[in-house]
Amino acid sequence: MLVVPGFATGDCWTSKLRNFIASIGYHAKGCELRGIGGQVSDLIPMLIRQTERFARELNARVRLVGWSLGGYLAREVARDRPDLVEKVITLGTPVVGGPKYTAAARILRRRGYDIEAIAAEVMQRQQTPIQVPIAAVFSRIDGVVTWEACIDYENRNVEHFEVTSSHLGLIFNSDVYRLVAEVLDQASRSRPTHYPS
Fold first, then answer.
1. Is 19 exposed, middle or buried (0-12, 13-18, 19+ CB in 10 A)?
2. Is the pTM of this model over 0.90?
3. In what order do the strands lie in the sheet with 85-91?
4. 18-40 pLDDT, tens digit each
5. Residues near 112 by Cβ (< 8 Å), separated by ≥ 6?
């Protein structure tokens, strides 16, 4: 499976998570996107190409695990190329508004990003449903991403899992690791979505 790091990070940030995934019997590799940032519209095709290569290598559909922005990218690969993706697991990933409901919004505005235009693009992409099963992990004490932005009301094959963790902690938390192991062991099938209140 491919593990996709968050905004302004790289594969070194997810090495412990990848090592854990490997320890439970799965082939896990980094996504090799250097310092994730910039235009998401450029990053999605890059990750699709990596997913294509990995799918050819495995001769099978790929499981994607993404933290924060990495989870958004993983979801969009699954949206655009469901033929390549078996399952997606997201960790603290905003699925509405792009960075609008994150602690990064103010910084991005100062750097000249049009946050409202990004949110509109996210909404536009949502017109195409994601056909791949998704496990969405979120925390009410995330501190970076507003937890409500992690709840997917649009795609009916999303299962939500609440943990207690900071945003950074999501890639180091033992409870998250146990949950990832359980999700990976489940058969890949759609389940009804439970929406937290």
1. exposed
2. no
3. 29-30, 2-4, 62-67, 85-91, 134-139, 158-163
4. 999 999 999 999 987 765 665 77
5. none
